[in-house]
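Appendix B, record 7
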Amino acid sequence: IRDLTGYTNEGGWRVSNLVRFRYGFPETIGGWEKYSTSQFLGTCRSLLNWITLSGDDLLGMGTHLKYYVERGGQYNDITPLRDTVVLSNPFTATNGSSVINVNDVGHGCMTGDFVTFSGASSLGGNVTAAILNQEYQVTRVDADNYSITVSVTANSSDSGNGGASVTAAYQINVGLNTQVGGTGWGAGTWGRGTWGSATTLSATNTLRLWSQDNYGEDLVFNVRGGNVVYWDATSGLTTRGVSLASLSSDTTTPTLATQVLVSDRDRHVIAFGANQGGSTAQDPLLIRFSSQEDPFDWTPTSTNTAGDLRLGSGSYIVRAVETKREILVFTETALYSMQFIGPPYTFGIQMISNNISINGYNTTVSIDDSVFWMGDTEFYV
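Structure tokens (predicted):
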């Protein structure tokens, strides 16, 4: 009771915290509960919940280091691989050090990337095969060498050893947990180019953000500005996602996209800010969609519904948001409505406004028939 003083309300309740009253008696309100006893790596900025045909309740989670599928409180790493190579005696150990140098010409790693070794033999006395054949986070030394830190200290030096057929499976490059805006000085990693040079924003030098959507019980996801990845739920939680293009005989399947989305109404997989078929250059205003009910068919023909659209206002697509009746597509200066209209054009696009702003990829939310988002200086609906 707050409309009386503490003195006149003697014997009553005046100030409380995390307390509710039932039948006139106070009860504590339960706080947060630990969802899982296991842990995942990185800062998570992307979540998607869906249920498979067998009833598994899954949660897709994209962090700046990895992509996970959670089930029953356990986080399963399905981060796609960018390369797998076989190395011959790549390891060098130094007596008294737990740091192992790895030689791989043109490895393409950045500091913080992950690699998993298999087929390695013992090294440096007590650095056994069981210790080497694990996943490690690397520290880049130069273009041909990187180092890993093992769980023991080598008790002897050993150079150019560790097995004649060591398989190194490299996961896609990790992303940034923070970002400097702009494309000039300070954008990207140290030493990325010549003095004073600008850099284009890509999947490796922008804040790591993921987009994802379920295609039935399977998952389609991608790093913002990176490859489009497909994960087959029937393959199990120990199977990594793989490039959508690698699963398709269609040579025009997009390999780069700002965002990927599945249109629930008509079952098209849509890539926003994608590369044109046969090109490796990303078009930041191009929208491409697969044939209906077929995420692997992207070449437009007279017998399918695949196709593309290109926006005319703005410089790049920031975000697409699906509502009950349409898909809203944001550029940095305009807002478009994308709707399924059927054959022969499949989708139609109409500008709603060309005088808006949007502050970032994660600044939108769709609730019922309304979409709210944060602009540069104001909020919109």
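Remarks on this record: The chain has a mean pLDDT of 91. The first strand starts at residue 19 and ends at 22.
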